[in-house]
Amino acid sequence: MDGVPTAVGLDVAPAWLPGGHTQTIWSALVARHWTGAAPHWQRERWTTPDADFIDVDWLQGAAAAAGAPHRVDDGVLLVLFHGLEGSSSSHYAQAFANQAAQLGWRFAVPHFRGCSGELNLAPRAYHSGDHVEIGWMLAQLRLRHRGPIHAVGVSLGGNALLRWAEEAGQTGRAVVDSVTAVCAPIDLTSSGQAIGRGLCRWIYTPMFLRSMKPKALAKLAQYPGLFDRSRLLAARNLYEFDDVFTAPLHGFAGTDDYWSRASAAPALADIRLPTLVINAANDPFVPAHDLPLPGPAGDWVYLLRPASGGHVGFTASPFPGHVATLPRQVTTWMNTLA
Fold first, then answer.
1. How far apart are CA 247 and CA 259, in angstroms?
2. Distance in angstroms (rounded) separating the CA atoms of residues 283 and 281
3. Is 263 a catalytic residue?
């Protein structure tokens, strides 16, 4: 793969921000506010083949090739797939939006179903291996844009994007020019176990379930009998939630089957387009000891493991920090591929 990336700027966290947990939380709650102006979005709604909808937020502004969302041009389009319960409001989406604006690139955030602020229509949601949905969304973007397209997936979105690239094989390069996965849980079993123990169990698991359970109950109101309500209410972690909701709704036999079949790690060598996989060594969600070794993973994939950064943290000095370094490093690598 040309343009081998480096961890310059990502590898060393500020001395005043030690540890993966603090880097994770600080970036999302504090450092985001010193990264740049809040982006202005224009929303476009796409109808899916199963009569549901996908909401796509397009960055607006002169530097971002302002115009109607369906505008076709020869410039660069950067598309970002968000993480679990994320959206265009997530700190990393806004950081990448600001970087795209500085470069004069177009920027789009397609929302997974149920994540754009409105309950979706079909008896399904989204999941970590949703490569079919990713493929459909990328195909729509390719129909709307004739210039280069670079795709970034963050956390859950990163694993799903890698799964799409694996399934696409030789055909992937006709759709996008590169793929980047940031803090993706490419071994879902390892990550699922990590988020269910220690501090993660008390900090992050309740945060996710506070959002996910009400959405699931709203889905049950749409489709009575879709799943066992009492089991969902009793779910104490993501394993139990996925076992009653995510796995059966998306064709898996249960959580173990889902986490096994949806993980991107086993098939990384099947990817046939330039791919960068970034995982911080101190990510609380993604244990480094269960990741492939850093460096090349086949001819097209490069695994980068900065020493610090937490889970989609990568806060940089000066105090109180900013989260602009990650998108700068990623887009610098993308530019080497031109």
1. 9
2. 6
3. no
Residues 6+ apart with CB under 8 A from 95: 32, 35, 36, 323, 324, 326, 327
311 given a catalytic annotation: yes
pLDDT the model gives residue 62 = 43
| Active site (annotated) includes residue 155 | yes
Catalytic residue among 27, 90, 116, 155: 155
Separation of alpha carbons 79 and 74, rounded Å: 15
Check residue 245 and give its pLDDT.
Answer: 98
What is the per-residue pLDDT for 34?
A: 83
Half-sphere exposure of 232 (CA within 13 A, CB side): 22
- What would the two tokens of residue 147 be? 């210039």
Q: Which of 242, 283, 308, 322 is catalytic?
A: 283
Per-residue model confidence (pLDDT) at position 8: 65
Going from N- to C-terminal start, the domains of the chain cover 20-187+265-336, 188-262
Of the candidate CATH numbers 3.90.550.10, 3.40.50.720, 3.40.50.1820, 3.90.950.20, the domain formed by 20-187+265-336 belongs to: 3.40.50.1820
For residue 298, the model assigns a pLDDT of: 87
Q: List CB contacts of 54: < 8 A, sequence separation 6 or more.
A: 45, 46, 48, 110, 111, 113, 137
Token pair for 126: 């989204």
Q: What is the dihedral of CA 181, 183, 186, 188, to 10 degrees?
A: -140
Per-10-residue mean pLDDT, the chain, length 338 = 70 92 96 88 98 98 51 84 98 97 97 98 98 98 96 98 98 98 98 96 97 98 98 98 98 98 97 97 95 91 96 95 96 93
